[in-house]
Amino acid sequence: WTESGKDMGLSACGKSEKLPEDYYKFLQAEFEKPRHIYKGMSAFNEQPKEHFERSANLARSIQDYFEETIMACVHDITKTYPEYRNINLMGGCGLNCLTVSKIVKEKLFDHVFIPPCPNDEGISLGSAYYKAIEKGFEQFSPHKIEDINPYLGSEKSIHGIDNEDKIRELFSNHKIEKVNNPSLVAAKLIHQGEIIAWFQGRSECGPRALGNRSILSLPGIPGRKKELNDHIKFRESFRPYGCSVLLQDAHKYFDCPENYHMPYMSFAPKVRSQFADLLTEVTHVDQTCRIQTINRKQNQRYYDLISEVKRLQGHGLLLNTSLNIMGKPILETIQDAADFMKDTKIKSMILGDFLISKK
């Protein structure tokens, strides 16, 4: 019941079957059967083949049912309120990248917006909004998409990020170098084929890595996904990785409108076939890729990093996954960063203005 995100990824591996009329009772019985589909890399690899196939077919059936239901709701909205040209989707449903991309593809609205934390983390924002209305506030000024700031982690949590003595204390077994241009240093390491950890400023809200707590790599190095799963993330092999791309370039590589803001990895358009070789490690079995578009105003240091990769590589594309080990929270503090370096095979981390490398 709690693995809807993984379920969405798994659905591409299965075949759709019609759910029985009393589908809730059916699912309840299915979910009580012992399976290890979502229990991490080791348990996943040890499960019988038929368990995987049954789970994948079930996931696909649920995804198709979900899509049909949501699309029916959205079509009703367009008929009832034809004057509204934009739509905001909230709740965990907003994290279903496949369905959201279908709404975009059908051109039902000028723009579809998903906030960075439409899941339970966003309840606090909804509560504040409700209270404001209750108190009599009636005038709200909308933000432009590029002005919204998802980097809402605690400032206290990054205490010491610019303190060289503190960093040398925490990373005493590492080589530490203060650099003038962290984005350029990171881009050069990535260009050379490294997987790097990227830890900058306040952490992002929501469940997706958005360029302040990220593990980064080129997305077209054969075997890179397996390497991440085996030695760093320890994830199940069916789960896809996401891709960050410059806003102005996204339509070139992916089947999406030009300059269409998709800043929070909430959309999964198809990969354009002529660029498939560049995106092998982030392309799912259904040829989709969960993408994050980046512009300079949104996150200048991360934008500069991708721009430098583009200058060196010819293509501004980055495999971007959350800076954590599966089952553990995304890194918040520099102590978390030190523990992560100790527990994984990551060789290099850019922490603020410091390059931290294993000796």
Structural notes for this entry:
The protein has 359 residues and is of the alpha/beta class. It is built from twelve helices and ten strands. The protein has helices at residues 4-11, 23-31, 41-46, 49-80, 97-105, 123-134, 164-170, 182-191, 224-233, 250-253, 300-313, 334-343; strands at residues 86-88, 111-113, 174-178, 196-199, 213-217, 242-246, 291-294, 317-322, 348-351, 354-358. The strands form two sheets. The chain has an eight-stranded mixed sheet with strand order 3-10-9-4-5-8-6-7, sandwiched between helices. The longest helix is centred in the first third of the chain and has 32 residues, at 49-80. The N and C termini lie far apart (43 Å). The model has no long low-confidence stretch (mean pLDDT 93).
Could you outline the blueprint of secondary structure elements for this entry?
Blueprint: H1 4-11, H2 23-31, H3 41-46, H4 49-80, E1 86-88, H5 97-105, E2 111-113, H6 123-134, H7 164-170, E3 174-178, H8 182-191, E4 196-199, E5 213-217, H9 224-233, E6 242-246, H10 250-253, E7 291-294, H11 300-313, E8 317-322, H12 334-343, E9 348-351, E10 354-358
- Helical stretch count? 12
Class computed from helices, strands and strand pairing: alpha/beta
What integer value in Å does the Rg equal? 21 Å
Average pLDDT value? 93
Low-confidence region ranges: none
**Strand segment tally:** 10
Could you give the order of strands across the largest sheet?
3-10-9-4-5-8-6-7
Q: Summarize the biggest pleated sheet.
A: 8 strands, mixed
